[in-house]
Specification:
This protein has 563 residues and is mainly alpha-helical. Helix content is 42%, strand content 4%. Helix 11 packs antiparallel against helix 16, helix 16 runs antiparallel to helix 17 and helix 16 runs antiparallel to helix 18.
Amino acid sequence: MTHLYKKGKTVCLLALMATLSLNSCKDFLTENPTTQFSADFVYNTPEGLEAGVVGLYNLQRAFFDNNDNNGSNSLIIDAKDDLTVPRGGEISNYGLLRQGIHAESSSVHSYWWNSYYKIVDRANALVAAGEKLASMDENKRKIVLAEAKFFRANAVFTLFRTFNNIYVTTEPTSFETAFRTINTKTPEADIYKLVNEDLAFAIANLPWASYQVGRVNQATARHLKAEVALWQKNWQEAKLQAEEVINQSGTYSLVPTTGQVFAGDLNHRESLWTLQYKESIDGNPNKLNFNLMPNYAELIPGSKYSIEQGGRGFGWLTVNNYLRDLLLKDPNDTRIKGTYYIKDYYYNDPATLPVGQTLGSRIDHPQWKEFAATGNDRHLFFVRLTTGCKKFFPTTGIPISDAHTMNRMMFRLAETLLFAAEANLNLGNIGTAADPVNSKTALGQVNAIRKRASATALTSLTFQDILDEQARELAFEGKRWFMLKRTEKLYDFVKEHAGYGRSGDESSDTNQNTGHANTPTDPYPYRNDARRIIRPYMVNWVIPRAQLNLLGPDYPQNDGYAR
């Protein structure tokens, strides 16, 4: 990407390329270290281009396994939505909107900007080289180009959805282009044109099933194209693309139970794209689980960290009462019973079990309670015993560890079904509660997800129902903030639900002992600063100072923010 991250870019590009190769004889996408690559090899040989595409997977994976800020950089998209309690740690500064609202205090925004522009820049170079390389087998060339164009589309779309005012070029960075002054953003129509053209090429040239585990495929590209169509309010296109994936029932389907979704290596029939992590080979351990699970086993005799209870965490970002109550609307919903989220913790350590307690009984701390009388005891409830998300704890993980190596599902069929349901709702294709998943009706698609979770099928459907089901199914997967922004609900839903408290209550938790009954219907507020701070313009992220300094003096900051 021209001009946007000049310093050291060329050196870093070649250094990273020198660590990547592709072994196409194995079933899994692999990355083997080598010191024999050069820029000439990467961009002027078929083997080099294939290795260069593998480097795109490396860059995307590195975005999630970076452990700066206690491993929370990739989670700020979740901290900023309406479903979480940003209790503490680095992640809370963005969730509470204490950081990320001024150009000078947005270093994690810089991380997002730099990470995705690097992917765009690498993809540009690979596309340009692949289009002119004469000695490459045509089928291999098309697959290389299709993967590179998918990554470019996904990165550009991510940048556009977060930062809005972005500059996009398909020209590879060179010595001649790196120092151009950029003073204008790319028009929205041009951004959508590039993204849709890249995805159309990927759809036309990628197989339905990945030719190596971990590779993007036609289903991956169609899933993203459906989401792009929803942003453009092109309901028919969104329906077409999502249902093309749903119709591939021989390749893709929901796994039977919610307990199987995040179990094992995640390379199952529901996954449309899973980033592959292999300890000490590909990627680093991450601290996502540490951020999202409470610290239930520390200072509670009779309790120890376990796989069943989601391992060790510290509750920096947890499930708020709005999401928890959505999940509890149906008493049979399995998602909050230890598969996606965990609400109750149990005594499981006979060596430290207190007198009067029994193994397997629910922990009910005498002081640390959701409705404790003192602020400190309520705070410790949120540290130790609040509802946590365990989607990122591996089923083979070490319970006492704060970092884990686990594959990550980027796209999965449950979200595709919600895309299709939203499109069908807007097209008037509602259907009935008895419709099967392949019925091409909104109720058939939403209820497939609900039935898998043992929740009662819906008999009617509104857009709020889809929003609620999206919250239950996809919270903490980096999806909610984008959906709320796309549907123009973000500002209202953050004001209504962010942090913890009664819906719409904007009073500060520093005054928790006045004006509230301290009951489930009228709780004391807690960590709800975003409700008071958010402004309508904050649906676009501020462009950080570090990036503005590399752009031209007239480059537009997003509306509402001081340049």
